[in-house]
Amino acid sequence: MSEEAQTILADFGEPYVSANLENGARVFRRCAACHTLEQGARHLVGPNLYGVFGREAGTAEGFRYSGAVENADFRWTPQRLDEWLANPREFLPGNRMAFPGLRDPQDRTDVIAHVAVETHAEPGPEAPEEPQ
């Protein structure tokens, strides 16, 4: 793991510090059909995820969200993203994400860590959060 990745994940704390980034990259391939990670990359079916951590839900510039996401009142943190990825339809009913979710908690941790490293994330004002 690169020094930059270690620094980013240290700010997020456990379980992300111990995440398997190779598995996260592998799992993210499912997400890449709809999401990009690079700064300035275009939106696909889903929004570009660069800058997602700490961002208010439903506010990525230039992406047209469902009313459910536009009206959601939270910021994206690792914990919120974990809850979303577990079951998007239950987490926020009425959203348009067709993906059924990632059932395996380790896959979710690994993909969140991968997204954090690839987007050079900072944890934001509400992160890190302890898993419940």
TrEMBL record:
Domain of life: Bacteria
UniProt domain Cytochrome c: residue ranges: 19-119
GO molecular function terms noted in the UniProt entry: electron transfer activity; heme binding; metal ion binding
Keyword Transport appears in the UniProt entry: yes
Matching SUPFAM superfamilies: Cytochrome c
Keyword Metal-binding: yes
InterPro entries the record matches: Cyt_c-like_dom, Cyt_c-like_dom_sf, Cyt_c_1A/1B
Keywords on record: Electron transport, Heme, Iron, Metal-binding, Transport
Stated name of the protein: Cytochrome c family protein
Taxonomic lineage from the root: Bacteria, Pseudomonadati, Pseudomonadota, Alphaproteobacteria, Maricaulales
